[in-house]
């Protein structure tokens, strides 16, 4: 039986990279303005709190940790296999489950596409980097 405790350093580094990806993705440089407009939010009232940052770090860390465990358990050790693995995770779990918000809560399609595309890039980036590093 293999250890389900992968090295923590790659997980921390990938967590930090994912935080920066999210900051860039949802910034005005990329999709931030469209996301705010589609939600009909007032940009002047949007203020990040320490809780937002702690929550984002925690979510990124748990995602990186679980991806590392999966990659290890499935013995995915090359970037090509990690890419395919990430795409299947995204299609089967992320894209489908997030679409429920469009169906049931009336989430705008543009918000859905911004969010799930970010999650696609995020999971692919983390999986590929972890597969190379672990």
Characterise the protein shown here.
The protein is mainly alpha-helical. The protein is 76% helix and 0% strand. It has helices at residues 8-25, 32-39, 50-73, 79-105, 109-133. The longest helix is centred in the last third of the chain and has 27 residues, at 79-105.
Note the main attributes of this structure.
single chain; 134 residues; mainly alpha; 5 helices; 76% helix; globular
Secondary-structure class: mainly alpha
β content, as a range?
under 5%
Uncertain residue segments:
none
Number of helices: 5
| SSE pattern, N- to C-terminal | HHHHH
Distance between the termini: 17 Å
**Taking Cα atoms only, what radius of gyration do you get, to the nearest Å?**
16 Å
Mean pLDDT: 93
- Oligomeric form: single chain
Gross geometry: globular
Query: What percentage of residues falls in helices of 4 or more residues?
Result: over 70%
How many individual β-strands? 0
Major sheet description:
none
Total number of distinct structural domains:
1
């Amino acid at each position: 039986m293999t250890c389900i405790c992968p090295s923590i350093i790659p997980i921390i580094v990938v967590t930090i990279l994912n935080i920066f990806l999210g900051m860039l993705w949802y910034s005005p440089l990329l999709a931030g303005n469209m996301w705010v407009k589609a939600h009909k939010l007032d940009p002047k009232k949007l203020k990040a709190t320490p809780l937002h940052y702690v929550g984002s770090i925690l979510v990124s860390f748990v995602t990186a940790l679980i991806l590392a465990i999966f990659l290890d358990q499935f013995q995915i050790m090359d970037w090509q296999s990690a890419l395919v693995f990430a795409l299947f995770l995204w299609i089967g779990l992320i894209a489908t489950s997030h679409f429920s918000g469009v169906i049931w809560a009336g989430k705008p399609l543009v918000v859905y596409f911004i969010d799930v595309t970010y999650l696609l890039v995020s999971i692919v980036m983390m999986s590929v980097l972890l597969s190379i590093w672990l």
